[in-house]
Amino acid sequence: MTSMTTTTHAGLLTDKVVFISGAGRGIGAAAAALFAREGARVMLAARSEDQLAAVAATVRDAGGAAEYVVCDLADGAAVRAAVDRTVEVYGRLDAAFNNGATIVPPGPLDQVAEDDFDRVYEVNLKGVYTAMAAEVAAIRATARSGAIVNTSSVGSLKANPELPSYGAMKRAVNSLTESAAVTYGPENIRVNAIAPGTTLTEMIREWESASPGVIDRLVAGTPLRRGAEPVEVAEAAAWLLSDRASFVTGAILRVDGGAWV
C-alpha cells in the first residue's frame, strides 16, 4: 500500500502580530482581511470606530483574529497608545503596516490652503514618523526583530502638480523609510514602502468627484489599463512584511500597473 503525505502550507504571516493603520477602509481594510487569512493576528487603527468595528467583524467572521483601537494619526499620543495597545492585547509586535493617510482638495500649489497643508503633514508624514518610532520600540522590546511597511504613492516619485502637498509628504515618507532601513537593519528590523498607483479606493473616488475623469486619465497611462483593487496592493505589503522578503529592506516598491504618466 502506498502511503500519502499531506503537506500543510503555512500562511505568509502565520503567528505574526501586525498593526495596521488606516484600517477602516480601502487598502487598510483589504490588508486586515488578507493578513488575517495569511495567519496574522491584527490590530486595526483608524479614526472611525464604526468602520473599524465592521472590518474587525468581517475578519472574525472569516475565522481570523482582529482587535481595533480608534486613533487619529495627527495625534502623536494616540498613535503611541495604539501601538502600545497592540502589545497589551497580543503580547508582542512583529510587524506594522503604516497605511493611514489623508488627502487634500486637488489643485496647484498656490491654491493649497495652509490648513490643508498642515493637516496632510500631520497625518501623512508626522503620523508615519511617530508610528515608526513607536513600532521600532515595541518590536525591539518584544519580538526583537520584525518588519515595517509604509504606504507611499507613485505620485511621490515624480512631479505631482494636482496634489503637490500630498506628493511632497509621500516623498518624505520614502526618505524616512530608507533612513530607517539603514538605522534598524543591524537589529533585523526591515523597513520598506509600497508606492501604489491608481487604486479603486474611497479616496480616489473622492478625487474623481472633485476632478471628473481623473480615473480614466490615470488608467490611460497605466499599461495594464485598469486600476488596482485594494487587495492587490495589500498583497505586496503582505509579502514585504513576511519572512519571504527576509533580505529586502529600504525598498520603495511600485505597485502601479506600470504607470508612466
UniProtKB/TrEMBL annotation:
<dbReference type="InterPro" id="IPR057326">
    <property type="entry name" value="KR_dom"/>
</dbReference>
<dbReference type="GO" id="GO:0016491">
    <property type="term" value="F:oxidoreductase activity"/>
</dbReference>
<keyword id="KW-0520">NAD</keyword>
<dbReference type="Pfam" id="PF13561">
    <property type="entry name" value="adh_short_C2"/>
</dbReference>
<keyword id="KW-0560">Oxidoreductase</keyword>
<feature type="domain" description="Ketoreductase">
    <location>
        <begin position="16"/>
        <end position="207"/>
    </location>
</feature>
<comment type="similarity">
    <text>Belongs to the short-chain dehydrogenases/reductases (SDR) family.</text>
</comment>
<dbReference type="InterPro" id="IPR002347">
    <property type="entry name" value="SDR_fam"/>
</dbReference>
<dbReference type="InterPro" id="IPR036291">
    <property type="entry name" value="NAD(P)-bd_dom_sf"/>
</dbReference>
<protein>
    <submittedName>
        <fullName>Short-chain dehydrogenase</fullName>
    </submittedName>
</protein>
